[in-house]
Specification:
By secondary structure, this protein is of the alpha+beta class. The chain folds into two domains: about 210 residues, Multidrug efflux transporter AcrB transmembrane fold, CATH 1.20.1640.10; about 70 residues, ACT domain (Alpha-Beta Plaits). The chain contains 15 helices and six strands.
């Protein structure tokens, strides 16, 4: 079976738990670099957070690059320049003296070939950005509380704790990447970032649900450790995570490529960048951070610690990352074939179907028909009586 076919049928064997140090190491390096950048450089906040001056000129076909060249003589070549609605040029810069404000107005009027009076000037204070930040912080706290309560009631508190840790991982990682890259932080960035937290949580809950199903059905028999069950469940949901991630990322890439780079809409660039960074971080945490942390917490429970010790004593702990075919299909492996007093009967072994790894219990082998004399024939045919 090829790698693509195994991935499609959820029959991969990626050791998500056993190689946790690698996944944590990758995240740790990026987070440490981000924290170092935050301490030295901070974040590149936009004018909405720092305050400044904005110029707007309507009904013009001036391009962003032309405006940037014209403003370089005033030291504003790196300012935020946007085209709004297709024909309105907007320039935002840090606070400037009155003479510079007038000179920039005249330069934009000349560039757009309009009277200077048609260039509007507005002063932007940092209070609006601070208000947006405060509201975003309150929304984030309420969101985390609601998520914790829901997951605790739906699953258990250890899964809720794991989900929150994964979300905090996404927040710190994304902030660090913004600091390292120097991307501008705007209110649009904050809104987009809050939006992607829901996607990260959705992917984690899907994997938790599969872990919960397999724990009740397979790990309850004592044939697998909890870590092996987590590996199995995550591999079963790997294809689904890839599909949902691709569906989410492709539109974001189109927004960045077409909207920001081809059409020059810098507002779309702010939104698209934050969405792309947040989605990538959320996908990574739901697959490589949340499952190992959950396994680490659960393996310390007496029940699962006892199962692990018993399997290791018997030498039947099985592979660290068993495949669905090896574990859930009868006779596929020595580990699956070994039965003890706690193992299910052969007629009620769970089977996994394409991609989803369904947990429904189905009959492993239907009873063969018997002959009229009560004996069972090899292929269900009645024996002929000799006269």
């Amino acid at each position: 079976m090829g790698a693509a076919r195994r991935l499609y049928y959820g029959d991969t064997a990626v050791d998500f738990v056993g190689k946790a140090r690698i996944w944590f190491g990758i995240s740790g390096i990026i987070i440490l670099l981000g924290l170092a950048s935050l301490l030295t450089n901070g974040l590149n906040f936009g004018i909405d957070f720092q305050g400044g001056t904005a110029w707007e000129v309507a009904n013009t076909d001036v391009q962003v690059d032309d405006a940037r060249v014209a403003l370089r003589e005033f030291g504003l070549g790196d300012s935020t320049i946007q085209v709004l609605g297709g024909d309105t040029l907007k320039v935002q810069a840090e606070p400037a003296d009155e003479a510079t404000v007038t000179d920039v107005r005249d330069a934009l009027a000349k560039l757009a070939d309009v009277p200077a009076e048609e260039v509007s000037i507005s002063e932007i204070g940092p209070s609006w950005g601070e208000s947006i930040t405060a509201k975003a912080e309150r929304a984030l706290v309420l969101f985390l509380l609601a998520v914790t309560l829901y997951i605790s009631l739906r699953f258990e508190w250890k899964m809720a704790l794991t989900a929150i840790l994964a979300l905090l991982h996404d927040i710190v990682l994304t902030v660090g990447i913004y600091s390292i890259s120097g991307f501008e932080v705007t209110p649009t960035t904050v809104i987009a970032f809050l939006t992607i937290l829901g996607f990260s949580l959705y992917d984690s809950i899907i994997i938790f649900d599969k872990i919960d199903e397999n724990t009740k059905g397979l790990a309850a028999t004592g044939r697998l450790t909890y870590s092996a069950t987590v590996n199995l469940s995550t591999n079963q949901m790997l294809m689904r995570s890839i599909n949902t991630s691709a569906v989410a990322i492709l539109p974001i890439l189109s927004v960045l490529v077409v909207g920001a780079f081809i059409l020059g809409a810098s507002t779309l660039q702010d939104f698209g960048l934050s969405m792309l960074v947040g989605l990538a971080s959320g996908i990574y945490s739901s697959l490589f951070i949340a499952p190992p942390v959950l396994a680490w917490l659960k393996e310390r429970e007496p029940r699962y610690a006892t199962i692990r010790r018993r399997l290791e004593t018997r030498g039947d702990a099985g592979p660290a990352a068993p495949t669905a075919a090896a574990v859930l299909r009868p006779g596929a492996s020595k580990s699956a074939a070994t039965a003890d007093s706690t193992s299910p009967s052969p007629s009620t072994v769970p089977d996994v179907h394409a991609g989803e790894g369904a947990s429904a219990v189905q009959t492993a082998a239907a009873p063969r028909p018997q002959s009229s004399s009560g004996s069972v024939t090899p292929r269900g045919r009645k024996k002929k009586r000799r006269r």
